[in-house]
Design goal:
mainly alpha; 2 strands; about 5% strand; globular
Length: about 120
Amino acid sequence: MSKSLYSTLEVAEGASQEEIKKSYRRLARKYHPDLNKGKEAEEKFKEINAAYEILNDPQKRAQYDQFGDNMFGGQNFSDFARAQGRGSLDDILASIFGRGALKPTLAWAGGLCQHGEHGRV
């Protein structure tokens, strides 16, 4: 089975959570659309975030380790992510794990939540 999420984050299959986090941060900085204006940077940044979302969660990672790319309908992860088109990261993950499996996440900008919650971090 191809472990494309691991290769997306440039880590070995047996990488520790700390190694995954460190590699994610390095790659996120490298491909962040605000810092990298290359044509492929935004797409690569989305793939990195999606891979981290799965590999950073022990339950999702275990499921991925068990089923590999079969979780994505037999496609490799990159093709699956591209095939999802304009869907958000939440849409991609919901198609894999179901809506109930997603933990609520909050997007913070300047300390204010963008999902209707108010307050500072």
